[in-house]
Write a structure and sequence with these properties.
Length: 167
């Protein structure tokens, strides 16, 4: 189903994005150093968007890293977007772990980034469709990827944000 959805978007939409394997973040949370080696091979700093499916405690949500390839000096377009289908579960409690993950991404790629610099990257939590029960979060995560890619500009900009939640 997911591959079919991606094919309907067209190749031009997919060249600006990298989608990480869905359990890499979970493996990272469990302390495996191998994950950063796998991510390094993806060359995430060459793309406009990096999609990080987050599976934590049996719940799925989506982290989108925007414009990591830009320098911190031009951080007006650097941001992280957390799309969460079950807002009741307090998604921002994961923020410290997300920021540590992003810092480790920079270090793995040989880029220096202090905790203060990583803290300066905006973490946005837009309103998105919400699940009705405890079993739909994975489907919503796939849906968010599709919606975002369907209308994502080649370079993320706050001028048109949040274009992807306008259904």
């Amino acid at each position: 189903m997911f591959r079919h959805m991606m094919r309907t978007l067209g190749e031009e939409r997919l060249v600006v994005v990298i989608i990480l394997y869905c359990f890499w973040y979970h493996i990272y949370l469990n302390g495996s150093p191998k994950v950063m080696e796998w991510i390094k091979e993806k060359d995430i700093f060459s793309k406009t968007y990096t999609f990080v499916p987050i599976v934590d405690g049996g719940h799925w949500n989506l982290l989108i890293l925007c414009n990591l390839r830009k320098s911190f000096n031009n951080n007006y377009s650097l941001c992280m977007i957390l799309l969460h289908s079950f807002i009741i579960s307090e998604p921002l409690k994961a923020e410290p772990t997300i920021r540590k993950f992003v810092k480790d991404l920079y270090h793995t790629q040989g880029k220096l980034a202090s905790s203060r610099t990583i803290a300066s990257i905006l973490l946005l939590l837009p309103k998105v469709p919400q699940q009705r029960n405890g079993e739909e979060c994975g489907v919503f995560t796939l849906y968010y990827i599709y919606l975002f890619l369907k209308s994502a500009p080649a370079t993320f900009s706050f001028a048109s944000y949040p274009y992807f939640v306008l259904f």
